[in-house]
Design brief:
Length: about 325
Amino acid sequence: MKEITLADKFQAKIDQEIKIEPKDWMPEKYRKTLIRQMSQHAHSEIVGMLPEGNWISRAPTLRRKLGLLAKVQDEAGHGLYLYSATETLGIDRETLLEQLHTGKAKYSSIFNYPTTTWADIGAIGWLVDGAAIMNQVPLCRCSYGPYARAMVRVCKEESFHQRQGFEILMTMMEGNEAQKHMVQDAVNRWWWPSMMMFGPSDGDSPNSAQSMKWKIKRFSNDDLRQKFVDICAEQAQILGITLPDPDLKWNEERQHYDFGEIDWSEFWNVVKGNGPCNKERLDARVKAHEEGAWVREAAMAHAEKRRKRKEAAQVA
């Protein structure tokens, strides 16, 4: 009779849809996989504030400024949730941030592209946040409890961001010819990088099979990408724009849209640090971290004073 190992019991819990919690036994590879994925997700939320942050003061109306400011604040909150969830796996935040700032840890390659017009903000909301939602909703059922619970609120807020982006583009498409051209130009530039957000094709994704067995992931990269294309192709018709893919067409037999080949050489080039804004984004993040050191130090000093005051009151 085969001896039941800890790994067998662990997999049985996952197969029964029982959440894995921080104090539960887990394989080291499971823990490392989660740290890599969750920290990359957290880094992406924080770095993702940068392409949009410089448009807050340039948004066309007060309503747009408030909406964009709220979105950037949401992204900061998402980063904090995800860093906190990652820390439950036994790694501290200082280490996570050091990995980001030294280039050891990655963030989503989509944030290494520039935002050159106001329409880019709409395109990011519609396409980038739309792709993020497609990736992240299944994470609400991730096998690791802290990650799954953090994603519930994140996905609700990301859904609002996607609607906000679509509304920005729809408003511009009801404007003059220059505004319509601006929308089409933005979509042309953001479409393919958004398609790359789902990661490499299944055959070139070395971690996907194990992540799906552990139910960290629920769908393959290619399945999620297909769902994204099917939705965006219909929404593009509503907007009155054309997606920049001459091979995009409805396949009656498959009941899905066919689409063209992705330029994976561009994807890997950006991942390796050679994108349009890689250096700019990382420099801005490191600068903000260094200049904010006094805030962190002041907060820690205040917390220590409160702790001592509380201890003194208890003794008295």
